[in-house]
Amino acid sequence: MWRPPHLDFITANVYMPIFHQKDWFFPFKSGAILLIIWTVTGFLIFIGIRKLGKTFVCLKGIIGVAMLLNMLMSLYYTPADADWHEFFKFDLSPLSSFGIWADAVGFVIVSLALGTGSVQKISSLSDFNENFFYNALITSAADILFSLISGITHFSSIASMAHRIYPEDEIPHRIKFMFTHEHVTPITMFPEHIIWSTKFGWIFGVLHYLAIGFLGITHTVVCFDMVKFAFEELVLKFKQREAFLGYDEDNKIQFSATCGVVIFGIIASIGLIGPNGITVSKLWIEFSSIGFMLVSLSEIFAINIHYGFRRYLANVQTMLQNHQHKSHLLYTLSAIWYYLFAPTFIVVTILFKVYKNKSIKVLEYSFPSGFQFYGWMVVILAAITVLVPLIHYLLAFAKIHAVSHIFEPLPSWGPINYNDFSKNLKNERAASVNI
Predict the structure, then answer these.
(1) Residues 6 or more apart from 259 whose CB is under 8 A from it?
(2) Is the pLDDT of residue 162 over 70?
(3) Which side of the chain, N or C, has fewer Cβ within a 10 Å radius?
């Protein structure tokens, strides 16, 4: 069977993900570090340790340094005639293909893997107790920058590989072919592995996976904790029969502030997918399909929120832990959706794709008609989740006539004191039982 020359290059120089094990090469040192990291992750999730962000705060900068180094090295190996104009090529034709809507799930997953959300994860380790609107803008700008870095790295890595392997007269065609080849796609999702083929490249791999691994630990543990908190809050509210929308004006203002954060976070999340959308759409027939990115924005509500919007919900969680403002059924249901049901739908969708293709393949494939409803289910449920706070936000804004009342947190907001909150929760439960 004929094998493209770039597959031999990948086999000899690049680590292949586990789902393409036919002929893979694994750098032992980085692989051992990765195994240790995720073993520790599982242990910490099992015992439920929190506040790991402060422990590993020194690793926050490694992600940025690693991504920048990755981009610079990929540009160093990329010849000048790499057709950079293709990087910003627009194509709206995929909008007419309804099968693309289902494949958008895979698109967004790959896009997130390329960098979107990584800076959001870093920001989640910082105290977020000042003006969250300002912090959100800074975080969004930083994430866009890192997404562009990741996209340039992806493009230049492919071009560099093509120039090393193919004759000059075949390079334009071969670059486009490599962008759509099923075995090249998973490799270029992780361009740091191409750097491993250079001298001392394994050191970069170790640092990269140390940072990603420890940030992954904090992300996963906090997500489990958020789901646990949401269910506890929901049960307590129903036991107390409390008025979920509150009694006094301060409570309503706080509820409006919650909705304002939710809406702004969703808008920011949509904006953040843009740079990586331009990048990942190259994996399809054309280098850059903006139409495919627009389709995927419908599903980014559920997926990117799960990775990048956790900081906003954590800020709302801090507000809700104030004894005077515990009146938000909306937040509780949203947290359960964002951290439990949305990821579940995403996993089910990807599993159907894997079952159909016998591998993780997103090219030239759409769901069978019987399975397309899973992609649409993510869109519909995410839209419903957004609709309720949007309506309440608009009503509150029309009544208050002051944006500052919606986007400015009260002085009671601050870092979470989980121990005190647990005690208060137990006391409220005891009081509800006595009543």
Answers:
(1) 330, 389, 390, 392, 393, 396, 406
(2) yes
(3) N
- The pLDDT tens digits of the residues spanning 312-352 come to 445 445 544 444 444 445 555 555 555 555 555 545 555 55
Which H or E element spans position 401?
Answer: none
Q: At which residue do the structure tokens 């997130």 appear? A: 112
The H or E element spanning position 180 is none
Which stretches within 15-59 are classed as H helix? 28-47, 52-55
Tokens of 326: 């515990």
Check if the beta carbon of residue 111 is closer than 8 Å to that of residue 374. Answer: no
How far apart CA 291 and CA 91 sit, in angstroms, is 6
Per-residue pLDDT tens digits for 191-250 = 555 555 556 666 665 655 555 555 444 444 444 455 455 555 555 655 555 444 445 555
Which residues are CB-contacts of 319 (< 8 A; sequence separation ≥ 6)? 254, 257, 258, 325, 409, 410, 412, 413
Find out whether 207 is annotated in a ligand binding site: no
Query: Is 111 annotated as ligand-binding?
Result: yes
If you count them, how many residues does the chain have? Answer: 435
pTM for the whole thing? Answer: 0.42
